[in-house]
Amino acid sequence: MRRLTVVVATLGVSLVLAGCGAIPGIGRDPRIEATPVATVICPQTYEAGHAEAGLVPSDFTAVAVLRCDPYASWEDDDGSWSGALLERLEGDLEPVLAALASPSDPRSMGPCTAIGYLSPELWVEDADGRVVSVAVPSDGCGAPKSVGLDAALAALTVVDETFTPESLVDSAAATDAGCATQASMLILAGPDATSGLPADADADVPDDQVIGEDALIPFELPAWPEVATVDGARLCDYVAGLGSTRSPAVTGDPNVFAGVRELATAEAQAVLADARHAPTAPSCTDAATRWVVVHPSLVSGQSQPFTVELDGCRRLVDPGLQPRAASPELLDLLTPAG
Q1: Whether residue 145 sits in one domain with residue 50
Q2: What's residue 214's pLDDT?
């Protein structure tokens, strides 16, 4: 896979070929030999421990190529994950080493396209287990140079791969339960969020108003259903990612699915009756660690869900995405036993 590198050129200087050689640094490969380190860092970061990418040292006896994909996906019994994939490739390394040793072009002093380039994040391992981070040859504008590297890597065999999960994108357990993978706390802010118009705007768009980028189209957000129409509810429970017992524990998830419960008609109607009259939530920044998303079931169909923080600010986000204050009685009704 390739790493995203953005190259923006602003130089518009016209130089003759003879003049380029007179400028320090122009005309030679900017890469230097990489320093061997003990461990691969996948993905590479620019924090402590970052290994500077460069040329494979001349005295380095290569036995494998290690390829890191920082934006990989992975599927297992838990669902679909995003994270970093580290592959070990073995085989005839000579074509790969030859491609990596190809010189980079001198830095262009002319205009370059402002575009993002993807370069492989590659390491080379020697017989002693040391590794070097290698820099792919580039052209004068910083784009990966066509040196046959992709074909050389494709000829190798992937003998091992290690996936480090970052976030659970789709939870199999949540999908089976009819719940979302994560509890959403999206809140609409503004003086008149329910209409989609600013506070000083008319309720209707004038007839002569042309709908364009400067106009807002009014819309009506979902409202609470009538209590009498509710015949049950599904409760989807979530906990903070750091407090999850799911293995492996993933810190990239703000919250993770923890289970599902069902409410009978009387309980569901009591929950809705209380939630409908919740007042506007006060300003609060306390972080929640437990959430429940309530999916009311109606006699004829489904209603829009609403989310409640069981701790922290203890807010209720209603079907119209407005923050309200959950009452102690509502929290008691929604908090799982034990």
Answers
A1: yes
A2: 52
